[in-house]
Amino acid sequence: MISLRDSYGVVPMFIDGRYEVGGDKRLPTYDPGLGSRIGEVPVASTSEVDAAVRAAASAFEKWSRLPIYERLQYLVRLKIVYEQNMEELAKVVAKNVGKTVAEAVGELRRGLEAIDMALASPHFLADVKKVMNIANTEPEIDMETVREPLGVFAIITPFNFPVMIPQWFIPLAITLGNTVVLKPSEQDPIPAAALGELFQKAGYPPGVFNVIHGDGSTAEALIKHPEVVGVAFVGSTKVGEKVYALAAAHGKRALVGAGAKNPVVVMPDADLTNSVENIATGFFVMAGQRCLAPGNLILVGEAYEKFKRHIVERVKKIRVGYQLDPNTDMGPLISSASKQRVEGMVTRAVEAGAKPLVDGRGYRVEAYPEGFYMGPTVLDEVHMDMEIAQEEVFGPVLPIIYARNFEEAVQFANATKYGNAASIFTSSGKYAREFARRVNAGNIGINMAIAQPTPHFPFGGRKKSFFGVLHAQVDAVDFFTDRKVVMQRWW
Ligand code: NAD
Fold first, then answer.
1. Which atom of ligand 1 is closest in space to residue 334's alpha carbon?
2. In this protein, which residues make up the domain named Aldehyde dehydrogenase (predicted)?
């Protein structure tokens, strides 16, 4: 199942511990570097959505009552099986998503860290700050809070991290005693389907972890299902807003990570060599298809001339190619539609006055003419009122914006509807501190283009980058559990 192949046929769902092929209709899934179909994704019927949720609900009865240390043993085995299969799984991720194998390995390592975080679940259940126990609160009455799992959670995930993002939620949710139904992106469902095998090998009881495939309609049916208590969603802002509203309308709790436009500010006093390398590569990791990908490069005062030339020189060295080729630095975009969308944004930016210093539109990799490739693109003379400066591109584009001073840079950094991450390059602690205080984003990077926290920190954004109160990763302990107050009097 997990191994690298040319074709995966109909990608199976994983319901109640068994793989099954189903679906009302089928959608194609691709190897984006070849530009060819490698499988078909079934769109789960209403009865298949129902079967998966019922399997999870039925498993919850026993699973939630298992001693926490027993649930932990399953997770320990999952970690071992996951590590044993990481190399093969990375290649499958690379093939279906279009990221390089090195990027896929990086993703899987992050997924492993999420398992490590979830291994602390007994401590989370006993969290001294949030679990209280007071004797004689009133005469002969003792009160205590008990943290409990809630039931079946829907996990709905985007295409760009088909293993890591499910891993942010699933190990934690189930080790705390819940059961889950995962609906991965229909664009690259193969790695998520492979996860079923890992859960089987780890010995999990049927129904604890389920995978169904499909599109937005499948996801909506899952959220609305009466037995689903909550949804952890990660994806675009447009869809995230809908999911948040739908969850609220149906009385479900929701944790919604959404789109981004992450500013990177460079002050004139920034370290030239280290900053250039970090920025020029940071913009193009995974061809810019990350929620933490830098979105705008804001060069302040003298930094404008000082950094621009070096960044362009470095960007020109990025090798675009097939994602499984070890000499490739940057692979293709996820789909032909995505390539057209990003190229269209670049064209509109140029029409609006931006100057291409490196133009990746129409890029072709000779050996793979059908692949969804676009070359790295650097646009100069971008202004904050242009679409390319305001909207998430999710592609290999580096827009350069000039700011006269620090004040203006902070203003620009806060001037989009998003607030996922923001970074500053400087050797001044004062600027760094001010930036961290005044920029309205969930993650702040100082001298790093990609500000990604590890799973022991909460992960979320501000403004249109996040909807909900409880963030992902360790914060989700509160999302996946609730505290009940038990008051006891014994005569
Ligand atoms: P997307 O919003 O198109 O799809 C995400 C998921 O939502 C998919 O599983 C899709 O099938 C499902 N979906 C589609 N319509 C739906 C509907 N009406 N109701 C419920 N679910 C529906 O996103 P994508 O293109 O797969 O991923 C890229 C986006 O994800 C970018 O905007 C990126 O910034 C964002 N992202 C955010 C984070 C974060 O943590 N904030 C992390 C990774 C990606």
1. 25
2. 25-486
| pLDDT(131) > 90 | no
Residue pair 376/398 in contact (Cβ under 8 Å)? The answer is yes
What's the rounded Cα separation, in Å, for the pair 474 and 471?
8
Return the pLDDT at 180. 99
Q: What is the pLDDT of residue 23?
A: 85
Q: Residues 226-261: pLDDT tens digits?
A: 999 999 999 999 999 999 999 999 999 999 999 999
Which mutation among 234, 250, 289, 470 tests ligand 1's pocket best, with the greatest number of atoms within 8 A of CB? Answer: 234
Distance 158 CA to ligand 1 centre (A): 4
Q: Do 237 and 465 form a contact (C-beta atoms < 8 A)?
A: yes
Q: Which two tokens stand for residue 264?
A: 């990177």
Ligand 1: does its nearest atom lie under 6 Å from the Cβ of 215?
Answer: yes
ipTM value > 0.95: yes
From the candidates 52, 59, 291, 410, which is the catalytic residue?
291
Domain 13-258+465-489 and domain 262-446 have a common topology: no
Structure-token match 């390319």, residue found: 388
CB of 85 within 6 A of ligand 1: the answer is no
Report the SS3 class of residue 156: strand
DSSP designation for 10: B
pLDDT of residue 128: 65
CATH class for the domain made up of 13-258+465-489: alpha beta
168 ligand 1 Cβ < 6 A: no
Nearest CA to ligand 1 atom 19: 216
Rg from Cα positions in the chain:
23
Does this model's pTM top 0.80? My answer is: yes
Whether 1 shows a pLDDT value over 70: the answer reads no
Q: Where are the domains of the chain?
A: 13-258+465-489, 262-446
Q: Give me the mean pLDDT over the 205-220 stretch.
A: 98
- Return the sign of the alpha-carbon dihedral for residues 370, 376, 379, 380: negative
Ligand 1 atom closest to 291 (CA): 34
How many Å apart are CA 360 and CA 346, to the nearest integer?
9
Cβ atoms 192, 156 nearer than 8 A: no
- Taking alpha carbons only, the member of 178, 216, 181, 170 closest to residue 68 is 178
To test the ligand 1 pocket, which listed residue (185, 239, 255) has its Cβ within 8 A of the most ligand atoms? Answer: 239
Q: How many Cα atoms are found within 13 Å in the side-chain-facing hemisphere of 322?
A: 13
DSSP 11: P
C-alpha of residue 147 to centroid of ligand 1, in Å: 30
Q: What is the pLDDT of residues 74-99, one digit of tens each?
A: 999 999 999 999 999 999 999 999 99
320 is catalytic: no
Measure the CA–CA gap between 452 and 281, rounded to whole angstroms: 15
For 262-446, CATH gives 3.40.309.10
